[in-house]
Amino acid sequence: MDVMIRWVYVTPKKQEVVLTSDLLPVEQALLLAEDFEKTGRVKELTFIDRQHVTWTKKELIKLQKELETEPHDVIAYFDGSFDNETLQSGVGVVIYYKQNNDQYRFRANRQLDELKSNNEAEYAAFWFLVQMLEELGVHHLPVVFRGDSHVVLNQLSGMWPCFEDDYNAWLDRIEAKLAELGIQPVYEPISRKQNKEADQLARQALEGKSIASTMELGKKE
Questions:
Q1: CA 89 – CA 121 distance, rounded (Å)
Q2: Closest Cα to residue 126, out of 61, 159, 175, 160?
Q3: Of 63, 68, 108, which is closest to residue 90 (Cα–Cα)?
Q4: Cβ contact 66:137 at 8 Å
Q5: Are 199 and 81 in contact, with CB atoms under 8 Å apart?
Q6: What is the CA radius of gyration of the chain?
């Protein structure tokens, strides 16, 4: 999680000056805050995250301790498949994360109806991924999102414009949920070969094979 420090500084002549930092990792921001407090010239010290939510030092320390026992260091993959003959779709997601000094892999898929294209299936897959992150308890931290749908990832990042109303509806829904969860997205388009796990899950969903599993991968280094 990255935050910006807002420091209301009191000068020797009792004038107030508002200073702000660049975005910093929360651990670094808290260390700097302690240095600021040692000056004896802090009237107010707050932290602002990427979603423009303001935190006190006490609240941020509490959040940091909570996150240590919750999923973090999250890398999430997604893929969607669409069958032109049956008009059914399959979505698959794979989530790697660390929790309580262990590493885990979560896999899930789902078969969907009433979608219109492969591109829409990719949006639905990303939405399904965000729902799974919420169920795992992922919140207020960076998440790396990887998929071979460069359209979805580049439109979510703002690199590419979106002119289709149906796709904009998916984008709005996804962005609202990410903001609600306090997730700071990092979008990394990858090749189809690098997305084999999620692709297989999406295809299995089309075949009617439902999967939802969590595997412990061992202790983190």
A1: 6
A2: 175
A3: 108
A4: no
A5: yes
A6: 21
Judgement on whether residues 83 and 108 belong to the same structural domain of the protein: yes
Q: Report strand pairing: 72-82 vs 142-147.
A: parallel
pLDDT at 219 over 70: no
Q: Supply the pLDDT for residue 122.
A: 96
pLDDT band at 221 (very low <50, low <70, confident <90, very high): very low
In terms of phi and psi (left: phi > 0; alpha: psi -120 to 50; beta: otherwise), the region of 100 is left
Amino acid letter at 121?
A
Parent domain of 38 = 2-68
Question: What is the dihedral sign for C-alpha 202, 204, 135, 217?
Answer: negative
64 and 106 part of one domain: no
Asked whether residue 94 falls in the same domain as residue 135, the answer is yes
Backbone angles phi, psi at 6, to 5 degrees: -115, 115
Residues 6+ apart with CB under 8 A from 82: 88, 89, 115, 117, 118, 120, 121
d(CA 143, CA 73): 7
Query: Distance between CA 78 and CA 6 in Å, rounded?
Result: 37
Pairing assessment for the beta strands 72-82 and 89-99 based on DSSP bridges: antiparallel
**Is 178 within 8 Å of 53 (Cβ atoms)?**
no
